[in-house]
Design goal:
The complex is a heterodimer.
Chain A (H helix, E strand, L loop, with lengths): L2 H26 L4 H21 L2 H18 L7 H24 L8 H11 L37 H4 L16 H11 L15 H27 L6 H22 E3 L1 H4 L2 H12 L3 E6 L4 E3 H22 L3 H6 L6 E10 L2 E8 L6 H11 L4 H5 L3 H5 L23 H10 L3 E7 L3 E9 L4 E9 L2 E6 L3 E9 L14 E6 L2 E6 L2 E7 H4 L5 H4 L16 E9 L2 E7 L1 E9 L13 E6 L5 E5 L1 H7 L27 E9 L3 E6 L5 E6 L3 E4 L2 E6 L2 E7 L10 E8 L10 E6 L1 E9 L2 E7 L2 E7 L2 E6 L1 H8 L19 E5 L3 H13 L3 E5 L2 H9 L6 E5 L7 H10 L8 E5 L4 H10 L3 E4 L3 H18 L12 H4 L1
Parallel strand pairs in A: 2-4, 9-18, 10-11, 13-15, 20-30, 24-26, 31-32, 31-33, 33-34, 34-35
Antiparallel strand pairs in A: 1-3, 4-5, 5-7, 6-7, 8-9, 8-16, 10-14, 11-12, 12-13, 14-15, 17-18, 19-20, 19-27, 21-25, 22-23, 23-24, 25-26, 28-29, 29-30
Chain B lengths: L1 H13 L5 E9 L2 E6 L3 E5 L14 E7 L2 E7 H4 L12 E7 L2 E7 L1 E9 L3 E2 L7 H6 E6 L4 E5 L1 H5 L7
Parallel strand pairs in B: 2-11, 5-7
Antiparallel strand pairs in B: 1-2, 1-8, 3-6, 4-5, 6-7, 9-10, 10-11
The chains are: A alpha/beta, B alpha+beta.
């Protein structure tokens, strides 16, 4: 049996066992998304591998099961016992086939049509009871011809008696046809001899034995070092000679024990040439695979864990990265595409590069995918670098492949790769240039057992922080503190406070800060409770500086305030005692070179404990939306921009309403007619200081730019709201309490745990331009036809947001809070040109509402636009089925306006029940 | 009533062929205690102990025993006694529980005693609750009583944070 196949069998058997367990767990906890996605990935992996090994029968079964799971993952199907039974029966079938494969080296004959039909029925939501047990009795349809795998000729040992007969089946079949193969498999499986022959002179040793050896050797090294130190101070002792020998032997021993765990990375690569070859044939491309640094050694455990991600990535490079031969010829590249793997050591890490010279990542396709998946808004994307946009391919559920194929395109690709690599403390980066190719760079630790760590001190204790999560060390000073040191060049970062919570502004990014003292309660009890006020005061040095470790937590960063930074040290990570496992701030403990025990900090645990995990995602790497595996956007979460006005007043505005964030230099702020303005994109923009007066002493002004359209036609109005400082973007559930009229404030909401004023944008817009919401004078038809819109939205907050936006665009808008009220308007004979409705509403929801509109009455032909936080394809389909004309994400004001224009324009051409209206009532005309 | 309790205790032990049991004796806040010698893995002098923030109150920290990390449990704290005076150089008794090593910090470790089982008695009913929880009984020695500590119980810490 070839290596590839036997590896596959081992892996699949493990996966199957795991999937079995997970399925049973899922049945008990149907809402358990991680379990579901685990099962999905396991089945996906099996399917994928089968495809490459040329195991069509297995692939078909796995594909059908994956389809069902995919629909469960998308939330289309509920997890029912029947469904679980169907999946389990497909797993059983896979096991059966795998067993046959193990004994014969080829897939056993048999039909899975019944099983697949059943799965398809389940997948379509029919609760067909077709019991899995009927499967075996089904007569196999195909005659006993050789199994239909021809293309990949793996050198399987040519089989047993059963296979020899069918090789000439066209002739008269003298013997009775063999019994149904499906039944015949089990005995074969039982008879399966453990043919995992012992290759070479190796023995299997439990990892714990080696771990133990490692511990002892480390301790031996320590003792040796101590001895050597003492011997140095004693001259002429008779120990010198033997001690030298002991020392050498110890070193050799250490190296030897380390070696037991190391393997060349080539071992993980040896399947790749074959995979690439098959891939090239399948895709009709010419691919050359170059492998450099195959002898680079790394820990076996790490090797195992990166094997699959590597395979996947090489496959991706061949499939998506490289162009077809014709395309390459057309752009003048050599016909043969090149994939290069390169591994080398770099500072305690192994770096693996996977490079192709293909077309590069298609930014535009990624963008449109991001928008359609609702992973980010257009405004987010506009603010992102190309690299940040490319990194979206690492997000769960993301895949640019248009069709679901057997090879890829289900969106479990790169996110799995990233998860697997991060699980072992690695990182993955990508560089892509259009037309030139893509390079993925994976950086992984040499071994999981030994990590490089930064030793720091907080309070009286020392701690280790894994070097891989340390981004940089920063010295900062407290705002307002140590003003005398202002001219010091070395300390440029300033710690500022928002409601007493310290943040660090580091190269114009806000970094949440956590004081280890406080978090770990290292100060004396007497000081503990005054901490918020005096935070970090204890860490401040005499010269007013603070030492901050910028640590990476997922995609975001957090700053840890420490007292002192020592050195980096290689440490052996050991798990903490059970009685300490509940403390999430520690990922383990270790013994330092001087023999003392030290706790290892877990930055992500720290971020979680201080409630800042992922909060600042929007600043780098990607938008704040933590996409769940089901691919659904959070319905009621809104990205809010937090900013500061005055000394400590934090206010918020929905990010979707802000067109851009700018930092405008003071010398670019001019005065026109006594009011501050600036030249912005070739035109004057009025600036409104939110605090009421303009602080001209600041070198830069933080400005939120509002425009009333981004259509690019040019007639848009702009206004810049000057705030003290932009604080953060947070994603939070919005429960706004409308205030009694306070000027410029819509109400108060709890955002990121604090009561925060949400500003009334319409008020501030009119401050800039009192006629902002007036219809521009030269609107078509002298303004005789203003399209009248109805907005149905249960949240006062959203209604208050949307109505001004629409009014600003020149529409006449009526807002109501539920479907019943809206229908009452209809029954009273009110007429509109379009209806905009929320989906999630108490009472009748948006879908019910649109059905009611379509069912009868004067509105039945009106364009109805759905406005919702959920914009997955499934939601959109559902919306359209129910009768919505269009489906727009909440807070995507451009999309809403564009959709309105389109709907109203269509209304004209259709000449429906409503009178014609000029499209885009105001904005187009201004242009 | 006392006699009855004694009788049952003795009869329980009579099943065992041995007539004696061996204890490592120790003192904590001037109380003499004993731990069955078979439960003791190591006896350590004063050690450098690393404090563990946010750990349960009874956890004094962790220490390095020949390359293994051992969780130190403060016996005084466990028995609800006042903390040891600052100058006490506490010793520890290392015991194993479920594959993990723990060091019990005590004021002083003294000799190893082999005691006849007939001197074993149940806890006096007036023993404070904190002691009764961790003591399986007492031995009458010349002039003083030795409480037998139940190591398993002592090491079964809840993970409630301090």
């Amino acid at each position: 049996m070839d290596d590839l196949l036997s590896d596959f069998l081992t892996e699949t058997n493990e996966s199957l066992a795991e999937a079995d367990l997970a399925l049973v767990k899922l049945e008990q906890e149907p809402q358990d998304a991680p379990t579901l996605s685990l099962i999905f990935r396991l089945v996906h992996t099996i399917k994928g591998t089968c495809g490459f090994l040329g195991l069509p029968r297995l692939e078909r079964v796995a594909h059908a099961a994956e389809n069902v799971l995919g629909r469960v993952r998308d939330g289309v199907l509920p997890v029912t016992p029947d469904l679980v039974t169907a999946i389990l029966s497909s797993l059983d079938r896979i096991k059966l086939i795998v067993a046959g494969l193990a004994s014969n080296g080829v897939e056993p004959d048999g039909s899975d049509a019944d099983l697949i039909l059943n799965l398809e029925a389940v997948s379509e939501g029919k609760t067909q009871q077709a019991p899995a047990t009927s499967v075996a009795t089904q007569p196999p349809a195909p005659p006993p011809t050789a199994p239909p795998h021809t293309a990949p000729p793996h050198t399987a040992p040519k089989p047993t008696s059963q296979e020899e007969t069918p090789s000439v089946p066209a002739e008269a079949p003298p013997e009775p046809p063999p019994p149904p193969p499906a039944i015949e498999i089990p005995p074969a499986a039982e008879a399966q001899a453990p043919e995992q022959a012992l290759a070479g002179q190796t023995i299997r040793v439990g990892v714990d034995v080696i771990e133990n050896l490692m511990t002892l050797v480390s301790e031996l090294v320590l003792t040796r070092n101590q001895l050597l130190q003492q011997a140095r101070s004693q001259e002429n002792s008779g120990f010198t000679g033997p001690l030298q020998r002991l020392s050498h032997i110890t070193s050799d021993l250490q190296e030897g024990v380390m070696k037991t765990r190391m393997q060349p990375i080539g071992n993980a690569w040896n399947k790749l040439p074959r995979i690439v070859r098959d891939l090239a044939r399948e895709l009709g491309k010419k691919i050359e695979l170059t492998m450099l640094g195959a002898e680079t050694e790394l820990d076996r455990q790490v090797l195992e864990l990166i094997k699959d991600p590597l395979t996947h990535m090489v496959r991706n490079s061949g499939d998506h990265g490289l162009e077809t031969t014709a395309e390459r010829r057309a752009v003048g590249k050599p016909e043969t595409g090149r994939i290069t793997l390169n591994a080398f050591h770099e500072g305690g890490h192994i770096v693996i590069e996977i490079a192709d010279d293909g077309r590069g990542l298609p930014i535009d396709r990624i963008k449109s995918k991001v928008l359609s998946k609702g992973l980010a808004t257009e405004a987010d994307l506009a603010a992102m670098s190309d690299e940040a946009i490319q990194r979206f391919i690492f997000r769960a559920g993301f895949s640019t492949a248009a069709a679901v194929t057997a090879v890829s395109g289900r969106g479990v690709g790169m996110d799995v790769v990233k998860t697997n690599i991060e699980r072992i403390g690695g990182t993955i980066e990508l560089k892509s240039r259009p037309g030139e190719g893509t390079v993925f760079t994976i950086k992984i630790p040499l071994t999981l057992a030994i990590v490089s760590a930064l030793i720091v001190q907080a309070g009286a204790e020392r701690f280790a922080i894994p070097q891989i999560s340390v981004v940089e060390l920063v010295r900062a000073r407290e705002a307002g503190l140590a003003a005398a040191n202002d001219d010091r060049e070395t300390v440029t970062s300033v710690v500022e406070r928002i409601n007493g919570t310290p943040v660090l502004r580091l190269r114009d990014r806000l970094l949440p800060l956590v004081s280890l003292d406080d978090l770990l309660r290292l100060r004396e009890p007497a000081h503990q409770h005054t901490s918020t006020a005096a935070l970090a005061a204890g860490n401040t040095k005499a010269d007013g500086t603070l030492t901050i470790i910028v640590a990476k937590v997922g995609a975001s960063h957090v700053g840890l305030i420490v007292d002192r930074v020592f050195d980096t040290e290689e440490i052996v990570v050991k798990p903490v005692a059970p009685v300490l496992r509940h403390i999430s701030m520690f990922s383990g403990n270790t013994i330092l070179g001087d023999g003392s025990v030290i706790m290892i900090l877990d930055p992500s645990g720290i971020a979680r404990a201080s409630g800042i995990a992922g909060a600042s995602d929007g600043r780098h790497g990607g938008p704040a939306t933590p996409t769940t595996l089901t691919g659904e956007a959070h319905t009621d979460k809104t990205a809010m921009l937090l900013f500061r006005v005055g000394a400590s007043d934090i206010k918020a505005v929905p990010l979707g309403l802000v067109a851009r964030l700018e930092n405008i230099a003071q010398d670019r702020v001019e005065t026109a007619a006594g009011l501050p303005v600036t030249q912005y994109r070739g035109r004057l923009m009025r600036l409104v200081p939110m605090s009421g007066h303009l602080d001209t002493t600041k070198p830069h002004q933080a400005v939120l730019v509002f425009t009333d359209s981004n259509t690019g036609i040019g007639g848009d109005r702009r206004m810049g709201l000057i705030v003290e400082e932009i604080v953060d973007v947070v994603e939070d559930t919005m429960n706004i309490e409308l205030s009694g009229r306070r000027e410029g404030v819509l109400g108060t909401a709890i955002i990121a745990g604090r009561a925060t004023d949400v500003i009334d944008t319409s008020f501030w817009l009119t401050q800039a331009q009192p006629d902002w919401f007036d219809k521009p004078a030269d609107v078509a038809d002298g303004g005789s036809h203003r399209a009248r819109l109805l907005v149905v939205e249960d949240s006062d907050f959203f209604r208050q947001m949307i109505v001004p936006v629409l009014q600003a665009a020149g529409y006449e808008v009526i807002g109501v809070s539920d479907a019943a009220r809206a229908l009452a308007l209809r029954d009273n004979g009110q007429m509109f040109q379009a209806v905009i409705s929320d989906i999630e509403m108490p009472g009748m929801d948006g879908l019910g509402f649109v059905r009611a509109i379509r069912a009868q009455g004067a509105w039945s032909n009106l364009p109805v636009i759905a406005l919702s936080g959920r914009v997955s394809e499934r939601d959109i389909d559902r919306g359209r089925e129910a009768g919505f004309t269009d489906y727009v994400g909440k807070f995507s004001q451009e999309a809403l306006l564009a959709s309105l224009r389109q709907c109203l324009a269509q209304g004209v051409t259709q000449g429906g029940a409503h009178p014609p209206y000029p499209e885009a009532p105001s904005l187009r005309m201004v242009a | 009533m006392h006699a009855h309790a004694t009788m049952s205790a003795i009869s329980a032990h009579e099943a065992a062929p041995r007539q004696e049991e061996v204890f490592v004796t120790l003192s904590v806040a001037d109380q003499l205690c004993g731990i069955p010698v078979l439960a003791v893995r190591d006896v350590l002098g004063p050690q450098a102990i690393t404090r563990i923030p946010l750990a349960p109150r009874e956890v004094a920290g962790s220490l390095n025993l020949r390359g293994r990390i051992v969780t130190a449990i403060d016996l005084r704290c466990r028995l609800c006694l006042p903390p040891a005076p600052a100058e006490t150089a506490q010793m520890s008794i290392v015991a194993e529980q479920a594959g993990e090593l723990y060091a019990l910090l005590v004021d002083q470790v003294s000799e190893v005693l082999s005691l006849p089982l007939r001197q074993f008695e149940a806890n006096p009913p007036t023993l404070p609750q904190e002691w009764a929880r961790f003591s399986t009984g007492v031995y009458r020695l010349q002039g003083r009583l030795m409480a037998v500590l139940d190591v398993g119980h002592l090491l079964a810490l809840s993970t409630e944070p301090a």
